[in-house]
Specification:
- By secondary structure, this protein is α/β, with parallel strands linked by helices.
- 42% of the residues lie in helices and 19% in strands.
- Helix 9 links the parallel strand 9 and strand 10.
- Helix 3 runs antiparallel to helix 4 and helix 4 crosses helix 5.
- The longest helix has 31 residues.
Amino acid sequence: MSSPLLSPHELDPLVRQALKEDISYGDVTSETLIPSSTTTRAVIRAKQGVTVAGIPVLQKVFELLNHSVSITVEHGDGETILSGQTIATLEGNTRSILTGERVALNFLQHLSGIATLTKQYCDAVRDYPTKILDTRKTTPGLRTLQKWAVVMGGGTNHRMSLNDGILIKDNHLAILKAHGISLTQACHLARENGPHCVKICVEIEALEEIEPAIQGQVDVLLLDNMTPDVVRKAVTQIKGRALVEASGGITLANIREYAAAGTDYISIGALTHSAPSVDLSLEIL
């Protein structure tokens, strides 16, 4: 599985910064104890079931540290593997492998954690046409990587940035209302003044807001913090006149209820802001 979100141009500064953070003045332990000419072989192994994400970052770490370290990928991005399986084998300068170990694992564990959680959500709704979306609740500086990991887990990216779509949220509506502008008028303003072909989504918190939004010709209705029963009523009321996205309070325990209610999309901030890192290890052979 691949994604246009990730490019070497974007990876380079991120990995350089991570390496600088960890080895700005060298690896004193390895340089003190390990002869510079020593070579070794190591594997990166999963210690739990994971969906892999981060191979390009692993490769970039050792490309920047030492071109002579070779990496053989056993299981690539987007693959789901079992505990004990090998993700990649590394061969080359021992110091370089030891020096790059933590930075490489930090990226791999974090990104694979996002991919693994995303796949769990996608698997939970596999019987429905609902798409799982991420949000902009990402770690500053890591959005591209984190959203790429969501794709590796089978999810779909929501807006990458504020210019990727018009999303009229509660705070926008509160400000406009204070200036005498209704929800319907706000939607019309977005349609009239927004860029051509950009989708318009409006966040609604109650069923009575559906018709004013529909009158404003929105593309997507974001049902915020509604129960599955209320979402089902909303879908019935909308009758296909707009796409339906549900968000807020959605977990692995209840996501099937939201998908069964007829949603087109379910957006989950936890994919990027709360995914636990998976357990991986680098073992010298």
